[in-house]
Design brief:
The complex is a heterodimer of chains A (272) and B (337).
Chain A (H helix, E strand, L loop, with lengths): L21 H17 L5 H19 L11 H17 L1 H12 L2 H6 L7 H27 L8 H29 L2 H17 L12 H9 L1 H14 L6 H26 L3
Helix pairs in contact in A: 1-6, 2-3, 2-6, 3-6, 3-7, 3-10, 4-7, 4-8, 6-7, 7-8, 7-10, 7-11, 10-11
Chain B lengths: L2 E12 L2 E12 L3 E5 L6 H8 L7 E6 L2 E2 L4 H5 L2 E4 L11 H11 L4 H14 L15 H13 L5 E5 L7 H16 L3 E6 L2 H7 L2 E6 L2 E6 L1 H7 L4 E6 L5 H8 L5 E3 L4 E5 L5 H12 L4 E7 L3 H9 L15 H16 L1
Parallel strand pairs in B: 3-8, 3-9, 6-7, 7-8
Antiparallel strand pairs in B: 1-2, 1-4, 4-5, 9-10, 11-13, 11-14, 12-13
Helix pairs in contact in B: 3-4, 3-5
The chains are: A mainly alpha (272), B alpha/beta (337).
Chain lengths: 272, 337
């Protein structure tokens, strides 16, 4: 559908705007969120400080009491897990942002513009990835300072980062869907927390799955957070990645496909 | 004149609530159509359908010649929309907000920047252009919001209760802007609960209630439909009401006993004014007060619907319009009864 059709006008409309550009509109929206982030220093607490506190807490307080698999120091075990956890927790901001945009009428404003219908969520997801790069960078630095020694094979590092960001964007789409469906800032916050918290802790993020009770092991092994954390762990530790990588990949592709389609549909129907 | 807005038989249900019940609207190009009605009459629903945000259950609507259901993207490229809230990103500056909207309106990067600057100047926001919108006052936010709806140079502008909650000064400034836009040829659909606002701005008014148009015409026509000017004379002594009516009988006098007032319709012949006063004087009846009163749109609304419009109850909470309407209407019926 183009915006230049002049058929059957009752009003002489001069040549109007060209058809929307998905990429250009997505970049405009991503820029909006990054500018807004830079204007809210208090959000840095969630982007940078809270992840560092979690790293220090588990490394120095709980870490000594947690058994690790053979060949792993706890910090080597912990860092891939805690990066995965931070990626999952960070996505909840997108649910809140979408609900807030609905409440403020901003989604209405966008929907009344001749812009791409996928760019509002796509731009938010893109800005989430930029934010995640910052968070992962800072965490990696802190991790190295407290003794993390990842395998420096560049292919493995790029693959590990790819799994982290891939998981991040899948969670962002899902979070956008939650925000657009729930439409209230407080409820979106609560729903994200209730969903992400148990998934994160009943996983291999902090504690190896084999030390959990049997009933929980079944859940934890199928948990996408376990699969992503285990894949990043194997990649950064120089181990064989086994079957976790493709299981993780299936999860990421499935979540991304389902959530992006559902969220875009929801956006098109949303009205405050 | 060609029609810039045309809606035929729009029907919209929300669950069991009927928001629109066969609404017809039309606006000529370059004119202001005022859509007047109480809270929940269906004004916002109508705007949302015309602005492609909602799809009607039945009926047909065109904006600038484009079918809102079949050519929504074309419609979006020729409209501007300002709702009841300032729909802005609080963390972006005024300039960044307008620049973003311009780019998303597909007018191009350079144009967006230039247009943002022009509009900030025009709406007296140039000094605040570099400040985050969260630091703006309520009036400044609404001006920025209106500016945002003009970035794409809309042919048709929808203003949904644009002055709700505004101070008188900001309201007057907004009225000025509306008049300027009309001079430039923009067609405007303005919804309002303020009768005065529709009277001041609209070339034509559609009065809607319960999802349909119950009257339409120019402000003058609507006022004429409830009668012309009235001479209201309040007697010094309430006991003389009957005597006064007898004396003024030939003028078609009507008495309101409760405040000792006699009303006389004033036609084209203004000599009635002095003649009536002379008659009372001759009959030895003293006056406490007198004056002429032009019928307001309040009278129009009362005459048409049997209940008063609820100007003061502007909805600023986010509750959905249809719901809010129901309780509001019930309340006003009681008041009118």
């Amino acid at each position: 559908m183009t915006a230049t059709t002049t058929a059957a006008t009752t009003t002489p409309v001069d040549a109007r705007a060209p058809a929307p550009h998905l990429l250009a509109d997505t970049l405009v929206i991503a820029r909006r969120h990054l500018l807004a982030l830079s204007r809210q220093p208090q959000l840095l607490v969630f982007v940078v400080i809270q992840p560092i506190m979690f790293v220090l807490l588990f490394r120095f307080v709980f870490g000594g009491a947690i058994r690790t698999p053979p060949g792993y120091s706890y910090v080597d075990y912990l860092m891939p897990g805690i990066i995965t956890q931070t990626v999952a927790f960070g996505s909840s901001g997108t649910a809140v942002a979408m609900a807030d945009d609905i409440q403020k009428g901003i989604i209405d404003r966008f929907r009344a513009l001749p812009m791409s219908r996928s760019a509002v969520i796509g731009g938010r997801v893109l800005s989430d990835l930029a934010r995640l790069l910052l968070t992962i960078g800072v965490m990696t630095l802190v991790g190295v300072l407290i003794g993390w020694r990842p395998d420096l094979n560049p292919l493995r590092l790029v693959a590990a980062l790819g799994f982290g960001l891939g998981f991040g964007q899948a969670m962002s789409w899902l979070s956008a869907l939650v925000g657009l469906s729930i439409r209230s800032v407080e409820a979106a916050q609560a729903a994200s927390f209730v969903g992400i918290f148990p998934l994160t802790f009943a996983s291999s993020v902090f504690v190896p799955v084999q030390f959990m009770p049997g009933w929980l092991q079944a859940f934890a092994r199928a948990n996408p957070i376990t699969l992503v954390a285990s894949t990043i762990r194997a990649l950064t530790h120089g181990d064989a990645v086994g079957h976790s990588w493709w299981e993780a990949l299936i999860w990421l592709v499935a979540i991304t496909a389902a959530a992006s389609i559902a969220a875009t549909r929801k956006y098109k129907q949303t009205s405050s | 004149m060609p029609l810039a807005i045309r809606a035929d038989g729009l029907v919209k249900h929300f669950g069991t609530t009927v928001a629109l019940d066969g609404l017809d609207l039309s606006a000529e190009q370059g004119r202001v159509l005022g859509v007047l009605g109480p809270n929940g009459a269906g004004k916002t629903t109508a705007v949302r359908i015309l602005a492609t945000l909602l799809v009607a259950d039945r009926g047909h609507a065109e904006v600038a010649g484009f079918d809102v259901a079949r050519q929504p993207q074309e419609v979006r490229s020729v409209i501007g929309l300002t709702g009841q809230y300032a729909a802005l990103d609080e963390n972006l500056t005024g300039l960044e907000n307008l620049d973003m909207i311009g780019r998303l309106a597909q007018i191009g990067k350079a144009q967006a920047r230039q247009r943002a600057g022009e509009l900030l100047e025009r709406f007296d926001l140039a000094n605040a252009a570099g400040r985050p919108a969260r630091t703006y006052s309520g009036g400044m936010r609404r001006r920025l919001d209106l500016a945002a709806s003009l970035v794409g140079r809309p042919v048709v502008l929808f203003l949904d209760e644009p002055t709700t909650g505004l101070d008188p000064q900001s309201r007057n400034a907004l009225w000025e802007v509306v008049r300027d836009l009309v001079t430039d040829g923009t067609t405007i659909l303005l919804t309002t609960q303020y009768l005065e606002e529709a009277d001041k701005l609209a070339d034509e008014i559609a009065v809607i209630d319960e999802g349909r148009v119950i009257a339409r015409g120019t402000p003058t026509e609507l006022k004429a439909s409830v009668g012309g000017e009235v001479l209201a004379m309040q007697l010094a002594d309430a006991g003389q009401v009957d005597a006064a009516v007898a004396a003024l009988g030939p003028f078609g006098a009507e008495a309101r006993v409760e405040d000792a007032t006699i009303n006389i319709p004033v036609g084209a012949d203004k000599r009635v004014l002095s003649a009536a006063v002379r008659r009372l004087d001759e009959a030895g009846i003293a006056l406490a007060d007198l004056g002429t009163r032009r019928p307001s749109l309040d009278d129009v609304f009362l005459g048409l619907t049997g209940h008063v419009a609820e100007g003061g109850e502007a909805g600023q909470d986010g509750s959905p319009p249809p719901r809010q309407s129901r309780s509001g209407r019930r309340r006003s019926r009681k008041e009118a009864a």
